[in-house]
Amino acid sequence: MFITVLYGDKQRSLFNIQCKTVALLTCMKVKCSCEHEAEIDLANLNGQVMNLQCHSGGAASDVLSQREVYILINVRRSSDPSDPVHTSLLHNCDLNDPLVLAKLQNEETERKQCASGELSRSSRTLTSSVSNQITANSWSFAVFQASQESSDESASQVHRLIRPALTDNTF
After folding, report:
1. pLDDT (tens digit per residue) in 16-71
2. What string of H, E and C letters represents the secondary structure of the chain?
3. What is this structure's pTM?
């Protein structure tokens, strides 16, 4: 169960959420180069702050959804502790601007669609390549068997039959 965290200049990192929330926050501070004393949190692409500090004793997977994208934010406590100030650590991203959040959501949707298309295309290419290799190996084995089991004349007949297929790359 993983999440993607956006931060910095369009940087992204994957984090495993099968751990305590406090461990996840510590790991994010290190990997995202935050100050050790900084108070950080996450916001989803709708701008909703996840308030991970309130769930520090529980599992991160109870608060966060797997395969989701979150924005790393800095939490500053003002004179009123019940009203913290949240600042996005993703450059050029204002959590209070719905247009910026909508743009981020669109980018992530396009990224997922592109990734699934790439995976599908790669899968088809790999399957075709493996299938072709198996077919070529089967033909080679048939030629080898024919040459071992029968006369030289039979083997040369098999070679004449399959040689055009080998040179035309039909498999």
Report:
1. 999 999 999 999 999 999 998 999 999 988 888 899 988 888 999 999 999 999 99
2. CEEEEEEECCEEEEEECCCEHHHHHHHHHHHCCCCCCCCEEEEECCCCECCHHHHCCCEHHHCCCCCCEEEEEEEECCCCCCCCEEEECECCCCCCCHHHHHHHHHHHHHHHHHHHHHHHHHHHHHHHHHHHHHHHHHHHHHHHHHHHHCCHHHHHHHHHHHHHHHHCCCC
3. 0.62
CA distance 155 to 134: 21
- CA 1/CA 102 separation, integer angstroms: 25
C-alpha to C-alpha distance for 171 and 105, rounded to whole angstroms:
43
Q: Compute the distance between CA of residue 91 and CA of residue 7 in angstroms, rounded to an integer.
A: 7
CB 42 within 8 Å of CB 50: yes
- More reliable by pLDDT, 156 or 92: 92
